[in-house]
Fold this sequence. Notes:
Chain A: Residues 6-121 form the Response regulatory domain. The complex is a heterodimer of chains A (122) and B (370). Chain A is an alpha/beta fold and 122 residues long. Chain A contains 5 helices and 5 strands; from the N terminus they run E-H-E-H-E-H-E-H-E-H. Chain A has a single domain (6-120), classed as 3-Layer(aba) Sandwich (Rossmann fold), CATH 3.40.50. Chain A has helices at 14-26, 37-47, 63-73, 89-98, 110-120; strands at 6-10, 30-34, 51-55, 80-85, 102-106. In chain A, helix 2 runs parallel beside helix 3 (63-73) and helix 3 packs parallel to helix 4 (89-98). The longest helix of chain A has 13 residues, at 14-26. With 370 residues, chain B is mainly alpha-helical. The longest helix of chain B has 55 residues, at 16-70. The chains are: A alpha/beta (122), B mainly alpha (370). The A-B interface holds A 13-16, 18-19, 22-23, 26, 106-112 and B 57-58, 61-62, 64-65, 68-69, 104, 107-114, 116-117.
Amino acid sequence: MDKTQKIVIAEDNSVFLLLIKLKLEKEGYELFVAEDGKKALELIETHQPDLILTDIMMDYLSGLEVISHVRNVLKMDVPIIVFSASGQEEMVTQAFNLGATDFMVKPLIPNELIIRVKRALV
Amino acid sequence: MVPPLLINSFFEDFPSIVIIVWVLAIVFFFVLISLVFFLKVVRFRLRKEELFVETQSKKYEENIVDYLYSNENSHELNSAQKEIIDKLKLSLVRSLDRKIFINTLLKLKGEVSGNMITVINQLYKDLGLATQAQSKLHSKKWHIIAIGIRDLRRFKVLEAQDEVAKCINHSKMEVRRQAYLYFINLFGFKGLDFLDELKSSISIWDQIGILDALQGMETQEVPDVRKWLSSENDYVVLFTLELVKAYNLRETQKELLLLIKHENKEIRLKTIRLLNYLYIIEAKQVLINTYENLTIKEKIAVFELLENIGVEVREEGAFVLKHINSKVFEIKVLALKILKQIDISKFIGLKNETNVLANLKVINYLENNP
């Protein structure tokens, strides 16, 4: 039997978080949700996810700090997909420099997110 | 309770000032106690409301997500969705609940796109919230009207356009602003038709807001704006000039040339600058012919145009030469600059002709600086 793939989502918009959580759970993934960067890191360290989805702007720790910690401190090569709002292009570049795998601009289409998640987890 | 007799004997030997101080101290003590109690009550109520908002938000978030996922593949409402709608309708009786629910919808709207936005807008209508927002348009309080139009815009309620159109000339600027944005956001460039009916002003801030909203539109097909350049409302003309500039509408040339003789000096000045920006060569002669009737600012703008577009020695040379001794410093400098461009020998020759030190300094400066 295949092992259920684990995803950590870090996103501070609670309703959007709930929406994508349910969407991904329907697809068969095991989800761990964090409403800020600090909690996201705790979840990442505890659960060793197969994929990380993170917003750039968050409380306590930004998405960039999360990526940096995952790559430089935890030394994990897990794929990371970043959510950014339009106008944050510079931050997206920084995210890629830090080791992000992919990015999506908000507002986003949930079905497109699923496709990207599947592609990242292949 | 202290017997009054005891109080009297206590204060008997004190001077009156001490008694007054005592009385004041007691009064202030009670005022302080009341204030502390009042603040406690306010804080308790605020915390209670905060907790209520938090709980309700969570509940509505779940309801909305359940609704969205109940039927992803069809446009028809299924029984699960109908059930959620009925449940929500019962819950959204209080205005605070409606406010929380709308904020939750908006929170989600900002993050998702595609078909989900259409579904969210439809949910807003199905819950009767669009009807309620429309009813706000009849309120006597202007801020309620503004909120109503804002919500109708955010949830794209096209059906309210006739009602919103009535607010285009509302006495309050905030209401008018919401009305403009409603038309632009929902109908794009077609929404500019509200300019036909506009009798009041459009602030600079609103103009920027409208242009910004237009630039965000998917289709950038600009309608024919020429009719608004001859509007009786000067604010409409001024805004249309901004549109002409933003979209380089050179086809408005004929109307722009007519505006040079407009009675509003702000329009005239803006038009001259726009003609310069659009590089309309035909403007040169028209401006020279009307030059004497213009204000100093407009005259300077004319010379800026001549400098930018260029001058023909045979046609405009004499006009330029006539103004090299202008009393207005800017005009004098511009005229000399143009002369340097079109006839350098004449320009150099001026050095020997002039005996005014200031003029000589300008000529020397221009000679050494391109």
